Amino acid sequence: MDKRTTLAAAVAELRDGMTIGVGGWGSRRKPMAIVREILRSPVKDLTVMSYGGPDVGLLCKAGKVKRLVSGFVSLDSIPLDPHFRASRQNGSVEFRELDEGMFQWGLYAEAIRLPFLPTRAGLGSSVLEINPELKLVRSPYADGEELIAMPALALDVAFIHMNRADAKGNGQYLGPDVYFDDVMCGAAKRRFMTCERIVETKELLAGGALQTLRINRTQVDGVIEAPGGAHFTECPPDYGRDEVFQREYTASAKDEENWRRFKAEWLDVSEAEYQTKLHARRTA
Amino acid sequence: MNDATRAEICAAAVSDNFRGDGEILVSCFGSVPSLGARLAKSTHAPDLLLTDGIASLVDGVQPVSGKRAAPLVEAWMPFRSVFDLLWGGRRHVVMMASQIDRFGNQNFSAVGAHAKPSAQLIGMRGAPGNTIHHPTSYWVPNHSKQTFVERVDVVCGIGYDRAAGLSPQQRRFHEIRRVISNLGVFDFATPERRMRLASLHPGVSIDEVVKSTAFELAIPGDVPTTRLPSASELALMREQIDPEGFANKEVR
After folding, report:
1. How far apart are CA A115 and CA B141, in angstroms?
2. Residues of A with CB under 8 A from a CB of B
3. A225 and A4 in contact (C-beta within 8 Å)?
4. Which chain A residues are within 8 Å of B124, Cβ to Cβ?
5. Which residues, in sequence order, are bridge partners of residue A160?
């Protein structure tokens, strides 16, 4: 089956109030072309689940986020995301904060269709106060230990970005870490994968070791070729993080004037224009 | 008395804090802990495992600054493997704390009410899971009443009072080893497991520590002075591990 589609068609599936998962980690291999497409759409009141980076900051600043479920938001080389901070400090975004391992556990429970997975992580911490719906479960075995029953975290739609993919929905990461992209896909009803390049299936194995073929086509509904689609986050070995751009992004939080300028230049444009402008800047 | 800087004294204290840990993963946040862990690995603890900060374990000692040789990669350690490893317990983490209290509860999530914080910080990361699964220590480069607080606003890493509220089974892997600040070294070797001044860095007075701490510390009658790094440790730090002095920029 040919699953090739477009950014617009993928984002058109979103409805107000949906729960979305965003792959990657911090400012690393984030599906930013999709994030930019969401910013151009009218959708709002999203619950966002993410190992948070600038995806979260941008979606918060644009007023798309009602609730964030995550363990952190960081830009890696810049520890804190100023747009996310502002959204929290003005009370506009609710943060269902979890230990980052509990977060994996919740997504994984959904992916393997279990109501919960037990864990010791979170016991004794504020996680239980921030997330009052969490319950404990007692081991039915001789040890009788009481653990947190981390509930399954269900996503309406997951978005991930890979280095390579084929048109059928097989995906390949060529960097050092797949993060939790496969688990995100597992936890979602609809799954969209952007990639740097769509290639013939036979070219995948030529491009990297067998273990880099981490996403199989049962995990994906739509494939979108989006070169530079992780920019300004890193997407090795295709490109590193654009640190200059990331600093401009954080500077856009200084005041509304800076934000308006950044938004007009980089967000109120199509993805094609965005990439063209980037290219022009690099070759200038 | 040699000419060791405060950062180098702190790094030697971090190094000593890994004594007896054996073959475990060390994860460090901050320049001084990174320097201290590499100092430990270069001297008394060669079996420690260190990451490159991305997804590889690297053996030998990678400097924290200056010219780096090609790393000797010994294993793959993506985030998922880190989670597996830490829940399995073979790790000692040194985290930083925006707030820490007398029982070692730690916060780097948010200051103020969680619903609408006055300062949103990075988030809990893995602190709840770390502290309940394996030894944890803290590094606080700016010891003050704003960091050593009466009560943390969000409990990320759990302290001894919160652990005491759990069953013996639930808390059996919990251990806050030490807190190292720019003023001294602290442990929890008191009957009620509250924070105790274990040693003062050279040139720091008890009064300065007390005035910089918002809660009452346990202070023994005779407080030792944190040891100075040896000449060979100083040479290692200055010539090989941190020739550009990153750690000296973190603490004065």
Report:
1. 43
2. 25, 52, 70-74, 79-80, 84-85, 88-91, 94-95, 97-102, 104, 119-127, 129-130, 143-147, 176-180
3. yes
4. 71-72, 97-100, 125-127
5. A193
> What's the pTM value of the predicted model, to 2 decimals?
0.97
Question: Phi/psi at A174 (nearest 5 deg)?
Answer: -115, 0
Q: Strand pairing of B136-140 and B176-181?
A: parallel
Q: Quick one: closest CA in A to B128, which residue?
A: A122
pLDDT in tens, chain A (284 residues): 999 999 999 999 999 999 999 999 999 999 999 999 999 999 999 999 999 999 999 999 999 999 999 999 999 999 999 999 999 999 999 999 999 999 999 999 999 999 999 999 999 999 999 999 999 999 999 999 999 999 999 999 999 999 999 999 999 999 999 999 999 999 999 999 999 999 999 999 999 999 999 999 999 999 999 999 999 999 999 999 999 999 999 999 999 999 999 999 999 999 999 999 999 998 87
List the Cα angle A248/A23/A238 in 5-degree steps: 65
Q: What's the CATH fold of domain B6-242?
A: Glutaconate Coenzyme A-transferase (3.40.1080)
Domains in chain A (CATH in brackets) are 7-98+153-283 (3.40.1080.10), 115-151 (no CATH)
Beta bridge partners of A68: A48, A95
* CB neighbours of residue B28 within 10 Å: 24
Other CB atoms within 10 Å distance of the CB of residue A96: 16
List all residues 6 or more positions away from A130 whose beta carbon is below 8 Å from its beta carbon: A95, A96, A97, B114, B154
pLDDT in tens, B200-247: 999 999 999 999 999 999 999 999 999 999 999 999 999 999 999 999
Q: What is the ipTM of this complex?
A: 0.96
Tokens of A132: 């009052």
Q: What does the block give as tokens for A248?
A: 């401009």
DSSP element (H, E) containing B247: helix B246-250
- Between CA A54 and CA A81 the distance in angstroms is 7
The string of DSSP letters for chain A reads ---B--HHHHHTT--TT-EEEE-SBTTBS--HHHHHHHHHS---SEEEEESBSHHHHHHHHTT-EEEEEES-B--SSSSS-HHHHHHHHTT-SEEEE--HHHHHHHHHHHHTT-SEEEESTTTTSTHHHHSTT-EEEE-SSTT--EEEEEE---EEEEEEEEEEE-TTS-EE--SS--TTHHHHHHTEEEEEEEEEEE--HHHHHHHS-GGG--B-GGG-SEEEE-TTTTTTSBBTTTB---HHHHHHHHHTTS-HHHHHHHIIIIISS-HHHHHHHHHHHHH-
> Which residues of chain B are within 8 Å of residue A177 when distances are taken between CB atoms?
54-55, 78-79
Take residue A284 and report the two structure tokens written for it.
Answer: 């200038």
Q: How far is CA B204 from the centre of its chain?
A: 20
Amino acid at A228: G
Q: Distance between CA atoms of A177 and A234, rounded to whole angstroms?
A: 12
